[in-house]
């Protein structure tokens, strides 16, 4: 298999991820004309920059491809062709052209230019929405968060009915046990600030007092969070200093090991040279005797 997830261009991966739940709202904000221009750049190999416009353009390109499938082909067939490709490199465009009515990439570009979508309706343009034979689905309906009856085995799925928080949050500051810090959490809403029943028409003075108390409460909580931030910054500085010291210690240990190895190497060289000198002297004596015999 030549093409896998990593061979696909980023625009196709991100566009598919946007296409599944739908991204008409993003496309409307970024502008259809801008997305068309950027989509044509992306399918021709432009670098991915990760901006909101890039995501809108990628979504538009994938949506146009899915809207121009030929015969009984489906979008899953495009993914299967990419997966089953037996040569290396990116074959995304070839897979799209093979399953759509596009004869070449120019036809793909022309289809992007001609694309027209209703971006003002409630449907977000998901793969299961009204644009693809399903019912109209808004951002809330496209991914349901309730009504699950068939829970997976050994799992108990509980959907929250309200938002709650713990009284404190414990975080680890250092590498050793006990090096933690508790951060006190607090609720900030109209009820906790005493502003749930403010009436500026019938009781303006009381309302002003409540607003002042709420501001004081928020200021106190901001001061507490500022103190926590200072402690975290100090802990970060300590950890960075510890890391620097450990790195320096490791470097010195490596230097000592290197010096030891160099000493052993020099010792071996000296012994080798001495052995060679002794061997040379030993060879000179029999050679001298041979000279006398001649």
TrEMBL record:
It comes from the Bacteria. Belongs to the bacterial flagellin family. It is found in: Bacterial flagellum. Signal peptide: none annotated. SUPFAM superfamilies: Phase 1 flagellin. PANTHER family: FLAGELLIN. InterPro entries: Flagellin, Flagellin_C, Flagellin_C_sub2. This is Flagellin. The keyword Transferase does not apply. Pfam families: Flagellin_C. Keywords: Bacterial flagellum, Cell projection, Cilium, Flagellum. GO terms for molecular function: structural molecule activity. The lineage of its organism: Bacteria, Bacillati, Bacillota, Clostridia, Eubacteriales. GO terms for cellular component: bacterial-type flagellum. Residues 209-293 form the Flagellin C-terminal domain. The keyword Transferase does not apply.
């Amino acid at each position: 298999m030549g093409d896998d997830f990593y061979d696909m261009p980023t625009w196709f991966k991100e566009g598919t991820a946007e296409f599944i739940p739908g991204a008409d709202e993003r496309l409307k904000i970024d502008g259809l004309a801008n997305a068309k221009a950027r989509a044509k750049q992306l399918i021709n190999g432009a670098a991915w920059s990760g901006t909101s416009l890039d995501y809108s353009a990628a979504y538009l390109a994938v949506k146009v491809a899915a809207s121009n499938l030929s015969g009984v082909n489906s979008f899953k067939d495009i993914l299967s062709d990419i997966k089953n490709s037996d040569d290396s490199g990116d074959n995304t465009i070839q897979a799209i052209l093979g399953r759509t009515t596009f004869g070449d990439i120019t036809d793909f570009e022309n289809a992007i230019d001609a694309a027209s979508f209703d971006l003002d309706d409630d449907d977000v343009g998901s793969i299961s929405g009204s644009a693809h034979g399903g019912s109209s689905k808004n951002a809330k309906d496209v991914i349901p968060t309730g009504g699950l009856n068939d829970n997976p085995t050994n799992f108990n799925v509980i959907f929250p009915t309200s938002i709650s928080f713990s009284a404190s949050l414990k975080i680890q500051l250092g590498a050793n046990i006990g090096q933690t810090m508790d951060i006190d959490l607090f609720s900030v809403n109209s009820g906790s600030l005493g502003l749930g029943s403010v009436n500026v028409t019938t009781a303006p003075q009381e309302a002003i007092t409540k607003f002042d108390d709420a501001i004081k409460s928020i200021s106190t909580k901001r001061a507490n969070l500022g103190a926590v931030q200072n402690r975290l910054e100090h802990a970060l500085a300590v950890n960075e200093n510890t890391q620097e010291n450990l790195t320096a210690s490791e470097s010195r240990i490596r230097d000592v090991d290197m010096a030891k190895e160099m000493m052993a190497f020099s010792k071996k060289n000296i012994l080798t040279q001495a052995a060679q000198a002794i061997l040379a002297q030993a060879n000179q004596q029999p050679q001298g005797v041979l000279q006398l015999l001649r």
